[in-house]
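User: Run a structure prediction on this.
Assistant: Running it now.
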Amino acid sequence: MTEEEDRLRRWRLVLGGEAADGTGARLEGDDLVRDRALGDLYDAEQRPRRGGLGASAPSVARWLGDIRSHFPSRVVQVMQADAMDRLGLKGLLAEPEMLAAVQPDIGLVTTLMGLRGAIPESSKEAARQVVRAVTDELEARLAQALVQAVSGALDRSRRTTRPRAADIDWPRTIAANLRHYQPEHGTVVPERLVGHARRRGQVERHLILCIDQSGSMASSIVWSAVFGSVLASLRSVRTSLVVFDTEVVDLTEELDDPVDVLFGIQLGGGTDINRALAYCQELIEEPEETVLVLLSDLLEGGIAEEMLRRARQVHDSGAVMVALLALSDDGAPYYDADHARALAELGVPAFACTPDVFPDLMAAAIQRRDLGEWAAEHDIVTAGPTEER
């Protein structure tokens, strides 16, 4: 780009669309995101081409993620302060009564997560109650399914063909030996016993949730916090929760309370998946007993080749690794298709997942089933070398 082209580009960003029609400057890539973020904040009242963010909490969360990813921190502070008045967020945060009156939902939670640093002291408890109402509802919806799926998968993994008498699973033993039915005796002669090995009374699996803090992943983060909290309550499972942007933060100690997890997350910022995977590798002590879930849109801002190299190392070590492009009910996510296909070629399946099927996914991973086949059984489209978009 020439010096003149760069000058026109900067004027185009400063003036906005209509005011800059005569520049001839075209915006691409990150500049388009910057222009949209500036327009949503400063053009909504003056120009009909912009709709602003209105009262849409998910839009506010995405906007907060965009500005943190594409502007210096001092500029972000100014834009957030302006958003308090222009986007109607100041009244929401300043009045505990207003927070208590709104309908709690995931969209509002993601907004509060993004604005946690700007919430007045007088409203913090009300904000936490809003978040708790949502996490309690989500936990009630799927906690039992997750516990049953994971516990059942561990039980099935403990099955043995040499059980003690008290541990024989008679229905499964009979089913496995029906061909040995003796009609003259009216009974089955079991050639092979099926039963459960004795419970170890210790941790049997290590589940690592590695979560991208990008603004686009906001609703997925809410679900991850809830699921992580449920998993942490299981004695036979060790759960680690790692969140990242360009830095890596281990929130495992906060897993007792998903509200603490969510208020410990900073939406937006850059993305360094390679660095996050490097940290997770250090957590893996017994690869054969480890499941690593990378929740990310795979828009790597670090060294992509290193990210893929580390993913290969995790897979080759014997650990189960899956890349979840989204964990939400929001529909098809946006993600880096090239990186998703590259991971699939390494043996790391990449696909989006709804909260309702996540428990079954974890059960399949614990049993070390082929997750590509599992996805196909659930009509989930996975990234692959021959995928067309």
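Residues 47-52, 54-58 have pLDDT under 50 and may be disordered.
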